[in-house]
Amino acid sequence: MKRFCGSEFWNASLTLYTDSPDLTPCFQNTVLVWIPCIFLWAAFPFYHFYLKQNNKGYIVMSILNKVKTFFGVLLWLICWLDLFYELGQSRVQHPVKVVTPLILGITMLLATVLIQYERLRGVQSSGLLFIFWLLALLCAIVPFRSRIREAADKGVTDQLRFTTFYIYFGLLLFQLILSCFNEKPPLFSSIVTDPNPCPEYTAGFLSTMTFWWFTSMAIKGYRNPLEDKDLWSLNKKDTSEIVVPTLLKKWETEKAKVQRKNQAVYSTSSTKVLNHVDGGTEEAGVLLLGKNDTKQPSFLKALLKAYGSYFLIGSAYKLMQDLIGFVNPQLLNLLINFTMQKDAPSWWGFALAFLMFFCALLQTIILHQHFQYCFVTGMRLRTAIIGAIYRKSLVITNSAKRSSTVGEIVNLMSVDAQRFMDLTTFLNMLWSAPLQIILALYFLWQYLGPSVLAGFAVMVLLIPLNAAIAMKTRAFQVEQMQYKDARIKLMSEILNGIKVLKLYAWENSFKEKVLQIRENELKVLRKSAYLGAVSIFAWTSAPFLVALTTFAVYVTVNDKNVLDAKKAFVSLSLFNILRFPLNMLPQVISSIVQASVSLKRIQCFLSHDELDPDSVDKKNIASGCVVTVVNGKFSWAKSDPATLHSINLMVPHGSLLAVVGHVGCGKSSLVSALLGEMEKLEGEISIKGSVAYVSQQAWIQNATLRDNILFGKPYNAEKYSSILEACALLTDLEVLPGGDQTEIGEKGINLSGGQKQRVSIARALYSEADVYLLDDPLSAVDAHVAKHIFDKVIGPEGLLKDKTRILVTHSITFLPQVDNIVVLVDGSVSEMGSYQELLTQNGAFAEFLRNYTLEDIVEEDEAIELEEEEEDFREDTLSNHIDMVDNEPVANEARKQFIRQISVISVDLENPKKMSTRKRKCSERKAAEHPPDKKSSAQKLIYAETAETGRVKLQVFWEYVKAVGPILCLFICFLYCCQNAAAIGANVWLSEWTSDTAVNGTQTETSMRVGVYAALGLTQGLLIFITCFLSRAYLMLKASQMIHQQMLQGTLLSPLSFFEATPSGRILNRFAKDIDTIDINIPENIDIWMRTFWYTASVLLICSALTPIFLIVIVPLMMFYWWVQRFYVATSRQLKRLESVSRSPIYSHFSETITGTSVIRAYGRQNAFVLISDKKVDENQKSYYPGIVSNRWLGIRIEFIGNCIVLFAALFAVIERNKLTPGMVGLSVSYALQVTMSLNWMVRMTSDLESNIVAVERVKEYSETETEAPWIVPDKRPPEDWPTQGKVEFNDYSVRYREGLDLVLKNLTLQVKGGEKIGIVGRTGAGKSSMTLCLFRILEAAAGEITIDGVKISEIGLHDLRSKLTIIPQDPVLFSGTLRMNLDPFEKYADEDIWKVLELSHLNRFVSSQPAGINHECSEGGENLSVGQRQLVCLARALLRKTRILVLDEATAAIDLETDDLIQSTIRTQFEDCTVFTIAHRLNTILDYTRVLVLDKGQIAEFDTPTNLIAKKGIFYGMAKDAGLA
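Below the sequence we write its predicted structure tokens.
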């Protein structure tokens, strides 16, 4: 080296052992100059390859670019000036003076070329050049200082080199500053056109590394709660448009490869088989496939090929982070060494402190880059998997669809795709954890030798313990979910039957049932809290136990082993590194197992058979015929027997073909075959032109009515209105609250069966296809509507008269008007011809006619009746389609639920003073979307749920503290404090122990030291255990028990109007989601928050106690911490809300698509639907992505604070090293190294706690709703046998539904003697039901009063009143449970009494035929009983209570005449001496009553005996005449 440089290369006394260190000139001229050059040349080939792959378009030359290039050229010139100056000397003194400027010059030239090359490739900010300029500048600082010192000592010897060096240094500095700025985006990039681009795309290198570009959103989120419009567009690379095709391409190649292999195996084996068997290839194929030799394509390989390379970049970052992680313990070792050497120069200490800081900083930046890559990979995986599954679901065959239900496929999307997403974050731990463990053990061995194995053994033994706890916890979770489901199911029934509960005063019985389930649920939660306490005890004590065993073994094995500060604290910091991988490994392995199950399921689904798009020939077609089938043989699955065989059809252009036959003869299958939905076994199908299809069960999208009809076609007003008219939809539009802009609920829930079918026909009409396949569309509509549609649309005079139509039908009325009829029998065509031809043949068709004629005549009569009824109802604007008997019982139930949840009371349009019946208008979008010409005076009953935004009030925390108990809360805080004191004690003791001076190479009193250390550590563990045990298992569960009880009580005490105004889904959500949060999430959040808070506090305390100067730094650091946290919490909380809101539309759209695949395919709308799905996924990822970035943004800033704490702890330890023992230095720095993790967790927990504590507020809201009158008024209780006579008086009584509405009943005055039978009649909305509700005080009086047997009912408790009256309500409500429970929930009566009432209510035959008798289980809502039976159960309830006053809300819609007569006769005999009020719909039931009360507009119009009223010829006479009774 001396010959090369002319001086020595390294001189320790010049560099290390001096107070003013310097490097030798040789070192400065070689190593320091070459480091940046080597870096640039080494990185260049990879970078060049990367730029070739990623071309973003070129950037126009800017001033910034010109300046950079100019400075680059100057640097190159300066380097070569040095070179030529040296060469110009008479002889070159030392080779270094030529070699170094030469290398540097070429490197500067490369850097300058790179500046231009990057510009042409669209790089806006270069990371490579930034690092190069930074390295070059850092390496130039040493010569910079040396030259100034030399000049100061000896003067300047070589003026040219002196000058060029400082120019060189200045230019480097400029280049570094310039490389921090960004170029403009490339020409034609999407950024220019995007209205709200993601700033990441244009962010500079530094901004990308520190996630600085996210700050603008953090600030925006802090100022105002974020909304959808604030979110940035998704990066192009992450959109479905790019991500999904990438995966599909790889998957297709994977499938093709496997297919080729299988074919090769197949062909070679089949030749072998053929040599032996004369059975031909069929048999050979069967033999082969039987062996299961066929390989399945691997979805995992496709995933790896698509996203593996991107993920590997993240893995590279992880490797770097792992390696850098081990540098700090080594530096700590050097720092402790330094404090031991009192004569060491102090700059060593400062250098070590800054090195520690830079290492930690680098580790932070690299770690978060790794996370970013992993999360983005996860996000892309989810997008790709959802996209692939969605696309596949549009093309799978029907047999494949049968093998997985809609729910299962939706699960593939939601659960399985999510598992992949979660796995990517930790997948690198698979190799990283073993690497970290090996490295940690290697370094520990260096310090403590074999005794490390003792500590490691403890760690390994703790793994099975943790695994066992995890398994048990999972079992408890499953059990808790079962109880929770049972509780929610019961709550749902209570809410659905709340009216009955209130009328019968049964609230307490049901409250007890809910609390019983809740008690069981809390028991399970308590058990899992015990386990949780054990697990936390194990997890927090593990590092301590490991340290304890290692140190104890180390000092006891050999007297010569001295535990000094260096060994103790460096080992502790290494043990802390070990903690994470050991804990993560079991988790990673279990999530890999879960993901592999998911992988299999997804792979299986994606490998399903697809429909053959060419099974229907669209080109080759015989002349004159539009649809032809020749020798068709079809089945639903290749393995199934043929459903249709020997089908021959020819349908000429413009004809109408009817397909008839018995149920199950293959009519719908024929339509499916024409659509290409079935497997074609043999034969040919061809169809000319486009197809429109109306399925048997109408498929309706969750969109507006207009969108359902347009189905992607452009809007044409004239055509649209003529179609609405033809499909008889105009009257429906008048009834729907938003006209054709009404949003239709999922599965068309707010339309009746008939309306759905008509919308489906309108959709087909609007599509203007050539061929119409109509699969029995007329069965779901009423007969007179069917006739209208046939005449206006399908028939010879309809809109479709020039199109080819194939109509499947059961209705024989229309057959004479069709061109041709095909009769199907058992899957083949038995006859074909016109109506007349077939009649004369007297074959299968004639028989079909004979079977169906009777039914059709009945239908016609019904239609006429319906039309008459419709006239009656016109004045009340009730839609016969929504409120009359519906032809679709299944949808009916669902719709009832829907209506219950979204009901709107509307004030009658003509007469605002009178309340009309509660119309079932079920659209959530109200007046905003009315077409301007519609009068809207519907009052809003449902108010939107308020979403919480902004910060959570301290009041809410105080509510929770009150529920737990304020004194106990303080006690728990004290316990957390104690456990930390114990931990500090143990570590201070360790630092004292390590400072014991060794006498003759051994430490004295080691056993005492070990004993106290163990005692302190175990005390800490024990305190943690007690704290967790107390807080999680007792206090917090007690709080959640109390909170639930209050909400349940509050809800049940609410008046009925509360339930009408609040959708039951909203109340259930509070009982499910919010209670769950209070049970599980809040205690966990509080626990982790307290632990991290006290840990951070103890770090700051120790550092301040050892070096009081540390206090100066705490304040600014904590302020920065608080500031970052406020910004983060506000933004991330809102992002989480936005993400969860945008998630469910993906799945609901998907399940909707699956149910309508055949319709989507028939209209050829697959691509449009794929785009909608992609858009919904992108919308969701748009709020998910800033959510991930916000965590990175926070992580880097918070860890920076942690790194600063490390820096200052080390710096102050160096400054005050004379006062501190090495043990104290080790203690403060090793504590500080741990603080970043706890700071990070503290912010996360603060954020989660703020999101979750809102649940307390939401639950509280329902505990404090306005209540109805007290259930029991102790000093006003009526006598036990009240009412004895049943005498009822109304005195000047008025009532309204709610404050601010008009009176429903006005000044009623009437007296009813005991035992009278009163019939109440009147038009809809006259106030009949209101009058009965007043007796039960469901509605409270606005004026006047009601007395029963002289007792004012407004003064007694509600339960005292309601338990003495009986009502048989209009809709029979049953609860799931035994029949006995439904009749007698309080178990007051004996079994004999119950059998007696069952006999009286004509149910005994049914009940005794059931194996369980009166303990027969009723399903939810009593669905396993017929509606008539349910009504009889309600009668039995009334008979069992047998009170003096009975109210009948006559339920005619549900009951056949026979049951109705049974009920009436039972009431006449059993309630002979009781007062009976009957709201009559069928007048014949009340003609023998004592008196009839006629209500009109809330007032008494007539009140007399039926015969007198008929004689008066007033309102009652008119009604009786309409009913044919007068």
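The chain is about 60% helix and 10% strand.
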